[in-house]
Design brief:
Pantoate--beta-alanine Ligase, Chain: A,domain 2
Length: 119
């Protein structure tokens, strides 16, 4: 049997199968990248919401009180919990904000700072 220049049918099918597998791997990586980008955006917005809420408490002339509620940012309503804790220094308060997603109990952001008691 004489071999002419070119590929046989089996060689073409193997090459096509390898290309198909490589294409599937690339699509899978693109899907994972898109999913990760969405998660990073969600966490970034939650952190921004937490920082905004904390700044409101730090800049308030009254001594902060704990509480909870909803904070809307970029069309998303984040649930937040605010705690005020005593420290070993009588003049300092520890302020903690925890932000959760709209439909879950997963903590997306948590920030804390210290503030002088009273003003």
């Amino acid at each position: 049997m004489r071999r002419d220049d070119g590929f046989t049918l089996i060689e073409m099918m193997v090459a096509l199968a390898i290309l198909a597998l490589a294409g599937l791997a690339v699509l899978n990586m693109m899907q994972a990248s898109t999913r990760n980008a969405a998660a990073v955006e969600t966490r970034s917005l939650a952190m921004l919401a937490a920082e905004n809420l904390l700044n409101e408490q730090v800049l308030s002339p009254q001594t902060p009180q704990g509480g909870n509620g909803l904070y809307e940012l970029a069309g998303i309503a984040y649930a937040w919990d605010f705690r005020v804790e005593d420290t070993t220094d009588q003049d300092l308060l520890r302020l903690v904000i925890v932000v959760r997603g709209p439909d879950s109990d997963q903590i997306l952001a948590e920030v804390e700072t210290y503030r002088r008691r009273g003003r």
